[in-house]
Amino acid sequence: MVETEKLIEIIKSTKPFFENRAAAGDIKVKGRADYATQVDESVQRYLLDEFAKLYPEIGFLGEENYSGENVSGATWIVDPVDGTTNLIHDYRQSAVSVALAVDGQIVLGIIYNPYTDELYYAGAGKGAYKNGKKISVSAVCDMEHSLISIGTSPYYHEYAENNFEVFKKIFLQCEDIRRSGSAALDLARVAEGSCEAYFERNLKIWDYAAGMLLVEEAGGKVTDYAGTRIGTDVTVNDVVAGNFKLQEALLNILNK
Question: What domains can be seen in the chain, in order of their start residue?
Answer without folding.
Answer: 4-134 (3.30.540.10), 143-254 (3.40.190.80)
